[in-house]
Design brief:
Belongs to the NAD-dependent glycerol-3-phosphate dehydrogenase family. One of its GO terms (biological process) is glycerophospholipid metabolic process. This protein is α/β, with parallel strands linked by helices. Helices cover 51% and strands 12% of the residues. The chain has two domains: 177 residues, 3-Layer(aba) Sandwich (Rossmann fold), CATH 3.40.50; 141 residues, N-(1-d-carboxylethyl)-l-norvaline Dehydrogenase, domain 2. The chain has an eight-stranded mixed beta sheet, with helices on both faces. Strand 4, helix 4 and strand 5 form a beta-alpha-beta unit. The longest helix has 23 residues. It is globular. The N and C termini lie far apart (45 Å). The mean pLDDT is 97. Bound molecules: nicotinamide-adenine-dinucleotide and SN-glycerol-3-phosphate (G3P). SN-glycerol-3-phosphate binds next to helix 8, helix 10 and helix 11.
Length: 336
């Protein structure tokens, strides 16, 4: 199975960087942008200045603001919009999806209300079988990938052949994708690390150093793995790119929007101030802390850091108080 003609729906940071990866790997790529002026800039000037300034986009990458035109003849469709808007966007595109196209999910989140992972939302709205859906996860800060800094990713699909088809389509000199069949683990890893990155940023914003951040990364991984175990993930996944790999990148990089958002809260800014500073770009953890917390509660899994992030973001809990509460919990064995 080989895919040559690929459509990327969403022209934000990661959609644009991933489209570049595909085009650099020799695929014919068409992007859909919400705003016609963004589509025109990508198509005519080979740049997406609002999201990835100073990055030259390849000539075999074009763009349109017309979804029907973008999707015409696509063998694979990459969904690159934020997780809480995926359902609404995909509902609008449903009738335009070419039959049998592989659907590739870039979003890292859990839907509010339904508590569904992104591949579950895609299957529900598109009617596609789970075998047709490939999830991309791993330590992939968009700006670094667009600058062609070396990185690896994981492509998860219950159908190995389709994962391999997308693997071939995005393998290149600076991007090394691995396959995995654990869709649940890869999606949970990607969604949960955004919440943990918020907490790490918050700690940094309060002036704490590497020990605190490492503690949050490690205990964040522990609570993510607990949820994964309960929901049927392979525990090994959390030792891989979608687990520890993405946590380390996101929790330690100033490029992470989630970490940056948390840092602002830690410095005393309000949620609204931090949102304004993000300039319309999504910090997925701000919403996913609530959906993941609810998923954990309904699954009977203890996720104290996620719970604290929900209460800081949505219930007005002071970050310092959240830290004190986390430290004041009952003593326990590391793996209980
Ligand atoms: N940026 C990264 O480094 C990165 C890396 C890996 C994964 N991701 C994930 O990929 C997904 C997309 O991230 P991104 O970085 O491209 O986001 P972004 O905020 O940079 O861009 C989002 C894109 O979706 C479009 N869009 C359509 N409907 C929207 C709506 N209702 N609200 C907001 N935007 C809407 C926007 O116009 C924009 O083109 C997220 O789930 C994110 O967690 C991002
Ligand atoms: O900038 P963030 O925090 O959305 O994180 C980006 C990617 O998910 C890192 O892998």
């Amino acid at each position: 199975m080989d895919v040559q003609r690929i459509t990327v729906l969403g022209a934000g940071s990661w959609g644009t960087a991933f489209a570049k990866v595909l085009a650099d790997a020799g695929r014919d790529v068409t992007m859909w942008a919400r705003r016609p002026e963004v589509a025109a800039q990508i198509r005519d000037e080979h740049v997406n200045a609002g999201y990835l300034p100073e990055i030259r986009l390849p000539a075999n990458l074009t763009a349109t603001a017309d979804a029907a035109e973008a999707l015409d003849g696509a063998e694979a469709v990459v969904l690159a919009v934020p997780s809480q808007s995926l359902r609404a966007n995909l509902t609008g595109w449903r009738e335009l999806l070419p039959a049998g196209a592989i659907l590739v999910s870039l979003a890292k989140g859990v839907e509010l209300g339904t508590l569904k992972r992104m591949s579950e939302v895609i299957a529900e709205i598109s009617g596609a079988p789970e075998n047709d859906i490939v999830v991309v996860s791993g330590p992939n800060l968009a700006r670094e990938i667009a600058q062609e800094q070396p990185a690896a990713a994981v492509l998860a699909c219950t159908d190995h052949e389709r994962a391999v088809a997308i693997q071939r389509a995005c393998s290149g000199t600076y991007f090394r994708p691995y396959t995995n069949t654990d869709v649940i683990g890869c999606e949970l890893g990607g969604a949960c690390k955004n919440v943990i990155a918020l907490s790490c940023g918050m700690a940094a914003g309060m002036g704490y150093g590497a020990n605190t951040v490492a503690t949050l990364i490690t205990r964040g991984l522990a609570e993510t793995a607990r949820l994964g175990a309960k929901l049927g993930a392979d525990p090994l996944t959390f030792a891989g790119l979608a687990g520890v790999g993405d946590l380390v990148a996101t929790c330690s990089s100033p490029l992470s929007r989630n970490r940056t958002f948390g840092e602002r809260l830690g410095r005393g800014e309000t949620l609204e101030q931090a949102q304004r500073a993000a300039g319309g770009q999504v910090a997925e953890g701000v919403m996913s802390c609530s959906s993941i917390r609810e998923l954990a509660q309904t699954s009977g899994v203890d996720m104290p850091i996620t719970d604290a992030m929900h209460r800081v973001c949505h219930e007005g809990l002071d970050p310092r108080r959240a830290g004190a509460e986390l430290l004041g919990r009952q003593n326990k064995h590391e793996w209980s």
